Amino acid sequence: MKYVLLAVTGLALAACQPSATPEPETETGPALTVERVYASPSLTGSAPRNLGFSPDGTRVTFLRPKEEDANVLDLWAMDIEGGEPYRLVDSRVLAPEERELSEAARQLRERARVRGSGIVSYQWDSQGEAILVPLDGDVFHVEVESGRARRLMETEAYETNARISPRGNFVSFIREQNLYEIDLVTGAERALTTEGGDLISWGMAEFVAQEELGRRTGYWWSPTEQYIALARVDESPVDNIQRMEIAADGSATVVDQRYPRAGTDNAIVELFILDRDTGGTVQVELADTDDIYLARVNWSRDGGTAYVQVLNRMQNELTILAVDPATGESSVWLEETTDVWINLTNDFRALPDGSVIWTSEDTPGGYRHIQHRAADGSLITQVTRGAWLVNEIDAVDSENGLVYFTGWMDTPLERHAYVVPLDGSSAPTRITEGEGRWSVSYNRGATAFIGTYNDSDTPSQTALYDRDGERIRWIEENAVVEGHPYFDYADDHIVPQFGTLTAADGTELHYQLYLPADFDPNRQYPAIQYLYGGPHSQQVHRGWQGFRPQLFAQRGYVYFTIDNRGAWNRGREFESHLQRRMGSVEVEDQLVGLDYLKSLDFVDEDRVGIWGWSYGGYMTLMTTLQAPGAYAAGVSGAPVTDWALYDTAYTERYMDHPDANFEGYEASSVFAHLENYETPLLLIHGMADDNVIFANSVRLYAEMQERRFQFEMMTYPGQRHGIRGEDRSVQLWTMILDYFDRQLGNEAE
Question: In 255-283, which positions are buried (b, 16+ CB within 10 angstroms) versus exposed (e)?
């Protein structure tokens, strides 16, 4: 479900800490406006995406938006030895008028939270000679040295999930629910499956795998190119939800969506292994029941074993099977069980000697840590340990016995890069500096990494570093100096204050607070409490926070956020407070935050608003309904209103099956508390939302109207779970800000 970013993703500022006694201003810059936030060029400056090394390590490649249109991306490169970045592939040269996305492609991008158009993904071949670029519904093969781009197909069908085979001989892709390949030498195309169509698909991830399990593919090449493991999905058991998509031109389309609501049947997912040499397939028996989730597939380095991760329906048992690709026969490589739930990762790293590095939460406190396991699955070494967690494994240098990872070892508010001996003989050593958040990507030999850093007052900066963290050269310094898009606004940036509060059970909770622009401690200000509240999300951290708090602060609001029990990056035990009782403990902790906010002398306790989107929209409803009158106004975007309407994989992971937790589902429903409606609400939803389906809000509208409750609402024709596009985004945020101004009596000075 995690959908926190809304339409302001990636925007933020550089600035200075607000002073309690403001200095008199002799000259002011332009005012920060919603219109400017969404205009081009982006106020964030140049923020490269999808950074990576070429296979030979001579270049860094990344996606960068066009200066004249921040929504269109091109592929850029920079030579390691020196020189300025240069555009490698211009999306408008390959496809001057990119055609409309197919429904399957639109869903894939929605699930992956991909924004923008043009080149949104790319892949190097293993030799570093060519790059695969999906664009315009087809696939382009670009030779790097010559710049020659070959369109591999030109069909009315929309090809998705394209990738280059491990040795660079083939390109595989999905067309009309079947898996195809193209021989890059001969140009010959062949269908590897033909049965796909209607409710059957091959090589594709089903809805809940994409949205809730973080798996967006349904096929996996073996390293030798001999085998392909591929999923067969049968959606016939899944309920057909007919939803009306009302477009911006007023037209309406009835969309049949196979959407498995909590307690109903999932798709049947089977796994086969195709031998490309013979054309034969063998089926892998995943479990003694079809009611499971295919979570991940990995290969050993020699291609002789496929490791298949399988979750049970309640997601508290993970089984990893070691599969012989020639026969499909399997044995249990590892089993993990928990009283809570399994959090999946992509941290399975097969080493040349047959052993495996991976991460597990089967530790005291449920903190994710690194393990080294033998080829038979037995534990060799517990590599890391302690009351902190590993974010992800970034590289393994098996020759020197080192593991590189990012994690939250120093504080849950900062993410850093570390290195640790594979044998666990000493504690991890921190590589990166600063007080913010790092993302890193290593080259093949783990001798260098691309590091992107940001903090509360530093926009994302990207550079090339050696393995010890010494900067070699900038890729994008992105300094807010004259000429930077945000330079004229930077002096007004507000840096948040951080602190901790205590939950009812004694648990420490982190908060952040933005003071309003030109803060005067002798005044009282209206305040906004922003929340998400659900699992797999962390809102309070020292990283780049975006423009939402800045827009409110510049408008004269105190802006406050607290991460309740259940939030991300504090360990599974911290998350488990939500188990079987969503909309309860989160509300308690948010009200602890509200009490603190109202205790501040400079906050007007009668003028506090609350808002959130997705799970945060749900929490806005649950908090205002369980604490009637505590807030002066609320804005709820795309909320779940009844967990019985949401999907199986997410809901049952935290709430159990409805038949086993009837009272929990009842108590977690907005409708169980609707008699307490008192706080004025603005309700917002996209009318084509295929994640939190529009029926959630429609049912709420109808029930509130039946009870003669007054409320405001805004719906967005054709929009899904996020509201996209410059014009709509400006309208949305102008409306939200104006609504709070009106409800909280905020008069802009």
Answer: eebbbbbbbeebbbbebbbbebeeeebbe
